[in-house]
Amino acid sequence: MDTEYIKLLFIKHKENSLTHRYITNRDIKPLLDKLKDKLGIKTIGKSVLGKPIYAVKLGKGPKKILMWSQMHGNESTTTKALFDLLNTLIDANNLNYILEVCTLHIIPILNPDGAESYTRVNANGEDLNRDAQALTQPESKVLRAVFNSFKPHFCYNLHGQRTIFGAGKANKSATVSFLAPAQDQACSITSTRKIAMEIIAVMNRALQKEIPDQVGVYDDAFNLNCVGDTFQSQNVPTILFEAGHFHEDYAREKTREYIYTAMLESLNYIANTTVNGNLYEAYFDIPENEKCFFDVIIRNAKVVKGNKLKVEDIAIMYQEKLINGKIEFVPKIEKIKKLTQFYGHKEIDANNHRVLDEFGNPVKVNNENDFVIVNNSKIVLI
């Protein structure tokens, strides 16, 4: 698809009621109520705390695609993109061919308790993405029941990733990442994985026009407890989507657009192509994610080490905290050492001056500081 056309579709159909990072059932229920006359919407189960797990079904085609988001409750960017996509598919008449060829089964928030508390895990403290075999949690059982009854031909496992990842070792943030999960211990390049890889390669080609060198892939180490690996092992091509960081976009509003672009591009491809995996090799052109970023690095800082003053770098990560119904970013010092192999999304040069906290004390690892003092000047870190 033409990327300029996708941009226009996004602007027209973006769901403006969903913003920033805190997305819960309270946010999506009014949207589902508005869409109920146009889409098949039902409650397919309940969470640990009894919250409804909703599903949306649309399309009437033979190619069946299962999508689920917020399996980790604090990973909401893909949920926003899903509603942008839903608005598009029910309104853009010239995309009717997608719904003629495909049937979509979408679970917008699989882990509503985790979404409410803004945690990765569910209300029992369990990571649903490590429960694919044991199926100890009600949310895991709901997803497996849908998988078994819907019998999808493709699965989209929609997640969000931390700001620490770069697309390779260069100073390029991994704004979007993918994975065609392994389906056996040997990480064999099976026919099923090749199909997932081919679709990822198509999405990458589109994204390179918008965010060149900012797409990565994850290591494919096999873990059958993970949902993607389990579904792939059932010979259903499964794609992991990871919404990452774009420059100064901590609300993940630009990233949602790129996830939307990838989703729409992939659906267009599936609708128009018999995907057989023959074009999978371009997947291996995508660099692997590297943990090479901090949110802020203060370079050339004079700090106390033992009884001496040394010039080091100070690495800061933002802690995401739910405060009064909003996500606040709290800077926390992670490391004080030379960080020549790392990049900061924001970099500050202390020019060999001492770096002090708001009380005039030397900064320390694990300190939370909204600002620091360098050469008698206050520098805000967020």
TrEMBL record:
<keyword id="KW-0482">Metalloprotease</keyword>
<dbReference type="GO" id="GO:0004180">
    <property type="term" value="F:carboxypeptidase activity"/>
</dbReference>
<keyword id="KW-0121">Carboxypeptidase</keyword>
<dbReference type="Pfam" id="PF00246">
    <property type="entry name" value="Peptidase_M14"/>
</dbReference>
<dbReference type="InterPro" id="IPR000834">
    <property type="entry name" value="Peptidase_M14"/>
</dbReference>
<feature type="active site" description="Proton donor/acceptor">
    <location>
        <position position="242"/>
    </location>
</feature>
<comment type="similarity">
    <text>Belongs to the peptidase M14 family.</text>
</comment>
<keyword id="KW-0378">Hydrolase</keyword>
<protein>
    <submittedName>
        <fullName>M14 family zinc carboxypeptidase</fullName>
    </submittedName>
</protein>
<keyword id="KW-0645">Protease</keyword>
<keyword id="KW-0862">Zinc</keyword>
<feature type="domain" description="Peptidase M14">
    <location>
        <begin position="14"/>
        <end position="266"/>
    </location>
</feature>
